[in-house]
Amino acid sequence: MNIKEIIVVEGRDDTAKIRQAVEADTIETNGSAIDNIIIKQIQHAKAKRGVIIFTDPDYPGERIRQIIDKAVPGCKHAFLTRDKARAKQSNKSLGIEHASIAAIRQSLQDVYELKDLEESEITREDLITYGLIGSPQASYRRDRLGELLQIGHTNGKQLLKRLTMFQITKDQFEQSINQVLQEEKDDN
Question: Which ranges carry the Toprim domain (predicted)?
Answer without folding.
Answer: 4-90
